[in-house]
Automatic annotation (TrEMBL):
Gene3D superfamilies: Winged helix-like DNA-binding domain superfamily/Winged helix DNA-binding domain (1.10.10.10)
Boundaries of every HTH gntR-type domain copy: 1-68
Name the UniProt record assigns to this protein: HTH gntR-type domain-containing protein
Species in which this protein is naturally found: Streptomyces glaucus
Transmembrane annotation, as ranges: none
PANTHER family documented for this protein: GNTR-FAMILY TRANSCRIPTIONAL REGULATOR (PTHR44846:SF17), MANNOSYL-D-GLYCERATE TRANSPORT/METABOLISM SYSTEM REPRESSOR MNGR-RELATED (PTHR44846)
Keyword terms: DNA-binding, Transcription, Transcription regulation
Domain of life of the native organism: Bacteria
InterPro entries linked to this entry: Bact_HTH_transcr_reg, Tscrpt_reg_HTH_GntR, WH-like_DNA-bd_sf, WH_DNA-bd_sf
Length: 68
């Protein structure tokens, strides 16, 4: 099984637990990759999945933000 769905599940748990508040900037891909000990591309796929679900929005040049 690919690792990115597991990373997406962990990030969903954090969002559901309120670790990242609505409107707040989501941690950078490289920071999450280092924290979770995975490749940045793995985190990028997980973030893309959360964006597709409508849980995050990405602003070019600014990063991702938790949807309000």
């Amino acid at each position: 099984m690919p690792v990115w769905p597991q990373v997406a599940d962990e990030l969903r748990r954090r969002l559901d637990a309120g670790k990242y508040k609505p409107g707040e900037r989501f941690p950078a891909v490289n920071d999450l990759a280092a924290e979770l000990d995975v490749a940045p591309s793995t985190v990028q796929k997980a973030v893309a999945a959360l964006r597709a679900e409508g849980r995050l929005r990405t602003v070019l040049g600014q990063g991702s933000f938790v949807k309000e």
